[in-house]
Amino acid sequence: MDKSDEHIARRIEVNGVVQGVGFRPFIFGLAERYRLKGEVANTSGGVIVHIEGPEEKISLFLKALSGSHPPLAHITDICVHHDNLKGFNTFSIAQSRSPEKNSTLISPDIAICEDCLRELFDPHNRRFEYPFINCTNCGPRYSIIQDIPYDRPKTSMKQFKMCDQCQAEYDNPKNRRFHAQPNACSVCGPQILLCNNAGDTIDTTHMVEKVAKLILGGDIVAIKGLGGFHLAADARNNEAVAKLRKRKHREEKPFALMAEDIKDIKKFAYVDSEDEKLLRSAKRPIVILRKKTPNNIAKEVCPQNRFFGVMLAYTPLHYLLLRKVGVPLVMTSGNISEEPIAIDNDEAVARLSGIADYFLIHNRDIYIRSDDSIVRNMAGETRLFRRSRGYVPMPLFINKQTVQVLACGAELKNTVCLTKDNKAFLSQHIGDLENLPTYDFFKMTIEHMKKILDIEPEVIACDFHPNYFSTRYALEQKDLPVIQVQHHHAHIAACIAENKKKGPVIGLSFDGTGYGADSTIWGGEVIVADEKSFHRAAHLDCVPMPGATASIKEPWRMAVSYLYHAYGEKFWDLDIPFVRNINKNKIEVMVKMIQKNINSPQTSSLGRLFDGIAALIGVRNRTAFEGQAAIELEMIANWPVRQGYEYCWTSRDYHVLSLEPIITSVVSDLENGVSQAEISGKFHYTLIRMFSKICCFIRKETNINTAALSGGSFQNNLLLAGLIENLNEYGFDVLSHRLVPPNDGNISLGQAIVAGALYRKG
Ligand code: ZN
Ligand code: ZN
Ligand code: FE
Q1: Rounded distance from Cα 105 to ligand 1 centre (Å)
Q2: Low-confidence ranges of the chain (pLDDT < 50)
Q3: HSE-up of 186 (CA within 13 Å, CB side)?
């Protein structure tokens, strides 16, 4: 017998996101292409293939397998073993073996694919204009899964029995709807329904057309989507958008926009090729894009902002609606201020009836909510501001940990994190835990993730702050050991882990607020850290926050504090607009609070310094949302500049970075009539120089050549790009975030890493 005719057998194990994403039909197709025999099955760990045939063909099969795969699949590893010939005559898809232990990965929710989109608008297709069209390459996943293994009876599709035609597709390995769990059509699947804000059904056969008319007429319509409800309005109609703002109690925070096509977006925003890739990706995040002026978008969408947050349509219903309205829509989360987005029909009508005039609902339940994700291209990479729909529950691959950890995250922008082996599962954006519905969502998410990921935590991690709801929750879990992790250490640990590095690093941990190890409020921290411990190597000098949290919403209070810090009572004599224009009595009250130490905690926060400078130079005295003053200060900056202010630091146990020279320089620029734009540019430049220099200093002391950048302040593009560039010039390896947000959305990841490193069994 010729050697090439000799048959061999191989057993191939494939792990990763390989179930419910068309992986077995893909294998089936490959086996057919190379005329190989055997079988493929889902198992607890992923997919297992037994393959028989000539060696040469099998190696081609393996090459094809590792070289390409279905769009939603994500392969983490492929193991090939020798096996015995079993004499298969065909290649088949075997019954799945119900897993006793589940460790396969679940796919995120995915935007409608090109094939389904074509069918959606094809009048000859049986799913023409059917709002729930999907296939193995697209549609809902994470949001509809109630339990594992991922099979239709364990999703919110269980109440819909497939019609014969759908069932035939589902059973046919050559069909792109083979084992697509949410498979449906207008005969057997979910349906949309229109009702008014009293919950009464509106009888109309052309529902989407009707909704389009309502929106174009200035009404606000709540629309049930993939991860929750949106509130939709005509983005060109200023009156409608202003009405939405007023009803939603959302003063100035930008609203997200949705368009059908890139060319529609290009009419009002700059889109480069990287942005376009992100917009079109199956994750369909909101992408931060620079505004074009003039544009056709209502002023109320993004007042005072030079950017728009824009996404492309991602569900079939979005496409149907956008094609009918023909204009971009405001698509903002269906919630009141900071509460979680509504997902249930009755709950939505109850909670949102004061905001929406109409409701476009449907009867496919959303089991777990996820908000739209937000990304921006900055410093040559995609940076996440919010990691949710489309990304979750894909894990981050980290250095292997020996224990399973539950980390409870921060208080604001909360996420939770569960770890298992070399994977960290970061939850979707949960929100601000201060309100009760968000706290309930937090608890539900923890239980849900434990269940679907089959993780039983052995240790629990949380913040140091005694009053965070997430800390209290952790301490209430009496049966588990608790490890408390300092906020800024968690930021840097998250950055180390995301970059798959090991410490120690010089960590620049910059944000608004974090509970410090000395009980003051930290936020402008340079720490030397690894996964287990840290020490504070340098920080911004401390100033009082008159009125504590009130000074976060009223940056003018911080401006008074910085002036007092630099000049003492002499600041009254300064001839600058800030001192001239603000009510003298109010300033006096602040000074008294500072002098007598009344409700004025000390802070080294960089976020507060941004706020204070913004108020001092007249950008704004009050903020309507977190970070607003800092964002506006960044946006007005003259850039690039090559000139900054003086800076200096003191050194005793650690370096204290003086604020005085910076404040006095800003004041003298104000006295000399230097523009806001120029001052802002010089301020940014000063920070970049000062922090780069201190890193060089610490490198001399420690021999550490890696710098890690984390914390909410790194949503500032000038600061991020400037520090990366400057530190690179000084020869540092610079770690920053690309897979998780730099803000408090990464705290749970950092906590999990630290707890995993510290915890020793027993
Ligand atoms: Zn599809
Ligand atoms: Zn059907
Ligand atoms: Fe933080």
Answers
A1: 20
A2: 100
A3: 10
Q: What is the spatial distance between Cα 547 and Cα 559, in angstroms, rounded to a whole number?
A: 13
SS (H, E, C) 444-511: HHHHHHHHHHCCCCCEEEEECCCCCHHHHHHHHCCCCCEEEECHHHHHHHHHHHHCCCCCCEEEEEEE
Confirm if 433 and 442 have CB atoms less than 8 A apart.
yes
**Whether the Cβ atoms of residue 227 and residue 109 lie closer than 8 Å to each other:** yes
Residue 290: how many CA atoms within 13 Å on its side-chain side? 7
Tell me how many degrees the CA angle 518-519-525 measures, rounded to the nearest 5: 65
User: What is the rounded CA–CA span in Å between residue 376 and residue 279?
Assistant: 10
Cβ–Cβ < 8 Å for 448, 145? no
- As a 3-state breakdown, the chain gives helix, strand, coil percent values, each rounded to 5, of 35, 20, 40
Q: Are 749 and 424 in contact (CB under 8 A)?
A: yes
- pLDDT at 338 (0 to 100): 81
Whether domain 3-93 has CATH 1.20.1250.20: the reply is: no
Taking residue 415's Cβ as centre, other Cβ atoms within 10 Å add up to: 29
What separation in Å is there between the alpha carbon of 43 and the centre of ligand 2? 28
Cα 177 to averaged position of ligand 1 atoms, centre (Å): 8
543 token code pair = 């100033």
Nearest to 47 by CA among 27, 70, 72, 68: 27
Query: Which-ligand-closest: CA of 714?
Result: 3
Say if residues 755 and 461 touch (Cβ distance below 8 Å).
Answer: yes
CA of 127, nearest ligand number: 2
Q: Which fold has domain 522-528+537-735?
A: Nucleotidyltransferase; domain 5 (3.30.420)
Q: Length of the chain, please? A: 762
Helix (H), strand (E) counts: the chain: 23, 30
Kindly write down the DSSP assignment for every residue of 591-613, as one continuous string.
HHHHHHTSS--EE--HHHHHHHH
Interval between CA 719 and ligand 2 midpoint (Å): 53
Among the four given CATH numbers 1.20.1260.10, 3.30.420.360, 2.40.170.20, 3.30.530.20, the one describing domain 384-499+744-761 = 3.30.420.360
Residue 150's pLDDT is 81
* Ligand 3 centroid from CA 212, angstroms: 41
Task: Name the token pair of 352.
Answer: 């949102």
Domains 107-190 and 384-499+744-761 share a fold: no
The residue written with tokens 């921290």 in the block is 525
pLDDT of residue 100: 47
Taking the alpha carbons at both ends of the chain, their separation in whole angstroms is 61
Residue 79, classed as helix, strand or coil, is strand
Query: What's the CA-to-centroid distance between 192 and ligand 1, angstroms?
Result: 19
d(CA 481, CA 483): 7
Strand order in the sheet with 74-83: 74-83, 7-17, 46-54, 37-42, 91-93
Ligand nearest the Cα atom of residue 188: 2
Q: ∠ at Cα 629 (627, 634), nearest 5°? A: 95
What is the residue type of 215? I
Sorted by sequence, the CB contacts under 8 Å of residue 428 that are 6+ apart come out as 227, 368, 369, 370, 371, 387, 388, 389, 392, 393, 415, 445
| CATH number belonging to domain 192-362 | 3.90.870.10
How do the domains of the chain map onto residue ranges?
3-93, 107-190, 192-362, 384-499+744-761, 522-528+537-735
Tokens standing for 745? Answer: 């959305």
d(CA 702, CA 690): 18
The domain defined by 107-190 carries CATH number 3.40.50.261: no
Q: Which CA distances in Å does 293 have to 275, 306, 354, 358, 631?
A: 19, 9, 33, 32, 19
Q: What is the pLDDT of residue 676?
A: 98
